[in-house]
Amino acid sequence: MPGIPPTRFVYLGPEGTFAEQALRTIPAAERGSRTPARSVPEALDAVRHDDADAALVPLENSIGGAVGVTFDEIVDGAPLMIAREVVLPVEFVLAARPGRSLTEIRTVAAHPQASTQCRGWLREQLPNATVVDVLSNGAAAAAAAAGEQDAAICAPIGVTRQRLAVLAEKIADHGDAVTRFVLVTRPSSPPPPTGDDVTSLAVFIAHDRVGALLAVLMELAVRGVNLTRIESRPTGEALGRYVFFLDCTGHVADDRVGEALRGLRRICADVRFLGSYPRHRWGVAPHERPVPAPPGLSDADYADATAWLARLRAGELS
Amino acid sequence: MPGIPPTRFVYLGPEGTFAEQALRTIPAAERGSRTPARSVPEALDAVRHDDADAALVPLENSIGGAVGVTFDEIVDGAPLMIAREVVLPVEFVLAARPGRSLTEIRTVAAHPQASTQCRGWLREQLPNATVVDVLSNGAAAAAAAAGEQDAAICAPIGVTRQRLAVLAEKIADHGDAVTRFVLVTRPSSPPPPTGDDVTSLAVFIAHDRVGALLAVLMELAVRGVNLTRIESRPTGEALGRYVFFLDCTGHVADDRVGEALRGLRRICADVRFLGSYPRHRWGVAPHERPVPAPPGLSDADYADATAWLARLRAGELS
Amino acid sequence: MPGIPPTRFVYLGPEGTFAEQALRTIPAAERGSRTPARSVPEALDAVRHDDADAALVPLENSIGGAVGVTFDEIVDGAPLMIAREVVLPVEFVLAARPGRSLTEIRTVAAHPQASTQCRGWLREQLPNATVVDVLSNGAAAAAAAAGEQDAAICAPIGVTRQRLAVLAEKIADHGDAVTRFVLVTRPSSPPPPTGDDVTSLAVFIAHDRVGALLAVLMELAVRGVNLTRIESRPTGEALGRYVFFLDCTGHVADDRVGEALRGLRRICADVRFLGSYPRHRWGVAPHERPVPAPPGLSDADYADATAWLARLRAGELS
Amino acid sequence: MPGIPPTRFVYLGPEGTFAEQALRTIPAAERGSRTPARSVPEALDAVRHDDADAALVPLENSIGGAVGVTFDEIVDGAPLMIAREVVLPVEFVLAARPGRSLTEIRTVAAHPQASTQCRGWLREQLPNATVVDVLSNGAAAAAAAAGEQDAAICAPIGVTRQRLAVLAEKIADHGDAVTRFVLVTRPSSPPPPTGDDVTSLAVFIAHDRVGALLAVLMELAVRGVNLTRIESRPTGEALGRYVFFLDCTGHVADDRVGEALRGLRRICADVRFLGSYPRHRWGVAPHERPVPAPPGLSDADYADATAWLARLRAGELS
């Protein structure tokens, strides 16, 4: 973030979940304060009310339960901005108090979504164990540490926090799942473009236009702006409009993204800009992955076309 | 559903939640057996393994926590089919044991997402009460009935089941929210077209095609097929493809939907047909809302064009 | 035209044709010199070599024989600009020396395309007359005046020039045909926008791009720019490219046309701007036909979107 | 052509022009009768009235003067069909009576468009010669043969017919120009597909639809049908509609072309099918250029998609 870097961070709690683990990959958060929030709205409100400088909340995938509404909550209320994304592999572990072995495990504390994602592993490795639902991955680790249950399905950070021992690593049935978190701040200038950025938008479309989404995508396609994510959100029919959350390639400072945004502004009932920030690729540093603009769509191409148009308007054909 | 109607139903449990309430709006389910499942995957697996005939699971909105992955789970494994949708208004109530008054309430049991959706009401009406997280709306009602907490935020069905009294109705901050559930069965012939149907699809797109989503939407738009919902789902980058879940207007038996489906089949890496079923409009019976096909796109228009083409191929111009 | 108005005009000759008639509808031409040229290229070369200030040549319809190549000739060579269009109804007359009556006519001088366009009338009214081909409508009138043939099919201006008498008016079989002429000058600032303008372009597309024309039309459609004319021109296959001549609604000074032009510049192998000029509607004065910009596409809408984008880039969300 | 091959041919006359030369490349015409017509309408009417079986008329480029209206004339009246195309390089020669040398030439007979296309060569090689306009390339050759002028610009066939000698070959300024002729018959079954065919259409669009041409192109693009030629034709404004002449890749018997045609039939005010016939590539035999259908758009792909749709409708998901 430009200007003063944030020092007071909130994240979707409780402690010991993937959200905390994601937050701690950010150097400024490692140095600053880190406070868990009970819910995504609570985390975002803390930023809105200046009780915190930035909130780390999940955006995609189902770990932690609160995803899905995050975009709704960002849009609903005083403006907020996404300043950064963190993509984290979902690596569930089975953990227990030190000294326990896998064969002794009779009960496993787990968030329902965590046990669901590991159900193949549980069926094979612990066919006789009972899964006990708890409210979060952090609570699962705490229950194992307190001896309430024999073991826990939790995030690696829960193991560290609760001084547990790992009985089995990477027990999720789909080994390549990831969760995507975003760091949300009050509005300010977006971070500078890196050449591989994401721009997030909320686009509102009037109810009665046939092909309205097609028109939105054409505005993007004509400028070579790709979508990496799209989600329509249900709104009450009485409201008579649709909202789409879009993640696009490129940065608001890029000419082609700017022109696409202006186009959406002109044709849509409303457009909310939610931020431009570096794309996070797991294990790939930004400087290792220069992503050239598509042919004809670089800032230089835009500058050339603008200069050419100025010549035409001045009567200088060539 | 054509053929033998289902008699054994599962639903996302526990008892006393919106899912059970939605299921009981279906006459056949009212007459048949109704078994709660611990998770969406468990509910779907019961159908896949013929332990049940149909599963009622949430598809949109966040009540109950398990939404969002429902489509993933339908697609992942032996084929299933959506045979029906049920759209339910989200009507949270504050309930307590009979005889209690609002002023006495010091603790409120609630699923975290339920308390989040009612946080404005809680702040105004019960500013000093403590919210205690529980694992479901059904568990909240049970906790109030058992006297563990003073009151519960729950669904109307939880009040009935636990013989509670309603202290306040419609306490959600957004009064017009709805949850959409679907009834999932093993594959069979879709229910007949009603003139106002939804067709659900999972569309897989190869990673490296620019504008691939635009191409998908053009296949639909050219046949006058509208989208009512779209969601991209994250896949591991290693997989190198994107999946989109689409809800379209129309029925697989309609010529225009059939032609659009054939077009998607030809251009996409994969297409999974997930069902065609009557659109559920809350409070509107199907016969009250005839929806004419767009100009040029009725089955009669298709028949006319097909006959014309046959004449051309036979050398009969006119 | 801004700057010094043209005083030396050439037109596709010979004298006494529709081209001269069209030229004389322009007040400046009525006051200036008017010289016939033997061909469209000769007329354009006179402007290119500064032997004339402006050339009036046909662009559409087939009267006079030279149409069709006009755009080719404008594009091929030093830049020229279309400064004005003149649309003229095609009103062929049958004319003869004064005193002749229709029943006496045995031979009719006519350009082959003129007699073709009047063949229904000739069959009915002069079934026994012989049509004698001549090289132009002007030559037909001259042949009748010289007594070489009994009558001529010609333009009204040919009647005046050769002091003939009209035997029959409006004898073309299609009464509503028009010919479109353009006034071509050396490059200068286009005439100011009137709110109902035409912009002419030549767009070159690389051979191997599938859907390239669709991409061109999308650039226009996204900015609400309509096409009123399109023509692909054959190029040798060895050249490996296609050229399209487009007439679009709007003026190069309009924001939406400017943005569309910049888009074409970026995606096409080459774009030649050929002029922006008031649309000529026969019998309708410009001030009687205000044409509002499509919703969201006025210059004010563009200004609003540009200001909004500047706010986003500055971090001012609202 | 299927059925009885044509034996009576007409062509745009007079004798000794490129049209006759093009006709004689067709074996059946070499064996049958060949009659010149005074104009394109006259040639087409001969076929309509069964005075001839087939008419060879120019469609593109400007040699002979009558092009451009050919499509209009095909559409206007009883249905006709394009059964074949012939593409001929434009090879103008300078010819004179045997024994003459270039240095003796003082006058050159030429059709105005022919002399226009050779004006660079004339300026360099015969700067002092006078060009005398005549009505056709055939008339030019005849004038040279009769000794009325010293030489003629004409087609190679004019040299043969009039027993002239060639003084200079390939004198057109643009060496790679071609003229495209079509052979027009009464309606019958189109010739069988070769894998590299052209389909010609006239598409009528209602006046008041914004983006109507874009909709037409989308119908084609979605089925992978490319355009090789497009031309809008002026219609009187009173008619309130536009007509576009399109040449598309593929054959009416191809599934993808058939589906695109049916789509156009459904959305356009009117569609006139004008024929499917092998694409003529100069100097390339059809069997040397197999052109595979685009991915997903072969007849086999269509058959696969149709079978898949049938399975879906029967409730067989997989």
UniProtKB/TrEMBL annotation, chains A, B, C, D:
This enzyme's EC code(s): 4.2.1.51
Highest rank taxon of the organism: Bacteria
Keywords: Amino-acid biosynthesis, Aromatic amino acid biosynthesis, Lyase, Phenylalanine biosynthesis
SUPFAM superfamilies: ACT-like (SSF55021), Periplasmic binding protein-like II (SSF53850)
Gene Ontology BP term (one): L-phenylalanine biosynthetic process
Reactions accelerated catalytically: prephenate + H(+) = 3-phenylpyruvate + CO2 + H2O
Stretches assigned to the Prephenate dehydratase domain: 8-186
InterPro entries named among the record's database cross-references: ACT-like_dom_sf, ACT_dom, Chor_mutase/pphenate_deHydtase, Preph_deHydtase, Preph_deHydtase_CS
Chain ranges of the ACT domain: 201-278
Keyword field contains Amino-acid biosynthesis: yes
CC annotations in GO: cytoplasm
Annotated positions for site Essential for prephenate dehydratase activity: 179
GO molecular function, one term: prephenate dehydratase activity
Name under which the protein is recorded: Prephenate dehydratase
Pathway: Amino-acid biosynthesis; L-phenylalanine biosynthesis; phenylpyruvate from prephenate: step 1/1
Positions of transmembrane segments: none
Pfam families associated with the record: ACT, PDT
